[in-house]
Amino acid sequence: MEAVVIPGDWNVDQILDDLDQHGFSVIDGAYSIEYQHAVSQECLSHLNEFRDAAIQNGVVSNIRSDHILWLQPEFQISHQHTKTLQQFSQVLNRAFYLGIKDVEAHFACYNAGEFYALHRDNPQGKNGRMISSVYYLHEEWQDDWGGELHLQDKNGQWHAISPKPNRLAFFQSDLLHEVLVAKHQRLSITAWLRSDTSLI
Ligand code: OGA
Ligand code: MN
């Protein structure tokens, strides 16, 4: 089997510099179009297994209305992305001493009208999430379809990152962010690079 490697066209120096200066980085055209189509198909073929992300242990919250499905080892195509993130974690560990040991990931689906209100993935260092990543895998996204990742960078400036197909965003898990209401179905893999061993 072909070894999974960090794509050769990722500008690693730029990504590290962006993370260092701003606490986030965006990679356009993260993978081949063939890969993006394949992962999109894999996601869509499991849509009926997604669950309401707002319900955790039977408790309903109103902070988010998307649907998620944790990646499973048999999801071979999306698993390649997780492997790439594991490899990239080594680069991040060398650059920033983050001590990342593990990657946890789920598919997320926002149907029209769905959102995720302001939050931090790791408030006050309460969990092992160091870096958050979101890979957008729907086939099309137009500028007026909403669904932006609205993120406050480490210097306090706000950015609206459009969920363009085949775009991968990395950001520090302690940063404040939200997903604005999407007007069309918005598909992604959200993954966290963790300094502990994930509990899933
Ligand atoms: C999350 C999240 C951002 C996005 O799942 O915690 O903030 O752009 N996702 O989907
Ligand atoms: Mn988040």
List the helices and strands and how they pair.
Elements: H1 12-22, E1 24-27, H2 33-44, E2 51-52, E3 55-56, E4 59-60, E5 67-70, H3 76-96, E6 102-110, E7 116-119, E8 129-136, E9 149-152, E10 158-161, E11 168-172, E12 177-179, E13 186-194
Antiparallel strand pairs: 1-11, 2-5, 3-4, 5-6, 6-13, 7-12, 8-11, 8-13, 9-10, 9-12
The structure holds N-oxalylglycine and manganese (II) ion.
Care to describe what's here?
With about 200 residues, this protein is an alpha+beta fold. The protein has a domain at about 10-100: Jelly Rolls. It has three helices and 13 strands; from the N terminus they run αβαββββαββββββββ. The protein has helices at about 10-20, 35-45, 75-95, and strands spanning about 25, 50, 55, 60, 65-70, 100-110, 115-120, 130-135, 150, 160, 170, 175-180, 185-195. It has a seven-stranded antiparallel β-sheet. Strands 7-12-9-10 form a four-stranded antiparallel β-sheet, with no helix packed on it. The protein has a two-stranded antiparallel ribbon with strand order 3-4. The structure holds N-oxalylglycine and manganese (II) ion. N-oxalylglycine binds near residues 108, 121, 177, 179 and 188. InterPro entries: HIF_prolyl_hydroxylases (IPR051559), Oxoglu/Fe-dep_dioxygenase_dom (IPR005123), Pro_4_hyd_alph (IPR006620), Pro_4_hyd_alph_FE2OG_OXY (IPR044862). Pfam families: 2OG-FeII_Oxy_3. Its cofactor is L-ascorbate. This is Fe2OG dioxygenase domain-containing protein.
Strand order of the largest sheet: 1-11-8-13-6-5-2
Structural class: alpha+beta
Helix content estimate: 10-25%
Radius of gyration, whole Å: 16 Å
Question: Judging from the principal axes of the Cα atoms, what is the shape?
Answer: globular
Distance between the termini: 26 Å
CATH C-level of the domain at 10-99: Mainly Beta
SSE arrangement, N to C: HEHEEEEHEEEEEEEE
Helix segment count?
Answer: 3
GO molecular function: ferrous iron binding; L-ascorbic acid binding; peptidyl-proline dioxygenase activity
InterPro entries: HIF_prolyl_hydroxylases, Oxoglu/Fe-dep_dioxygenase_dom, Pro_4_hyd_alph, Pro_4_hyd_alph_FE2OG_OXY
GO biological process, one term: cellular response to hypoxia
Keywords: Dioxygenase, Iron, Metal-binding, Oxidoreductase, Vitamin C
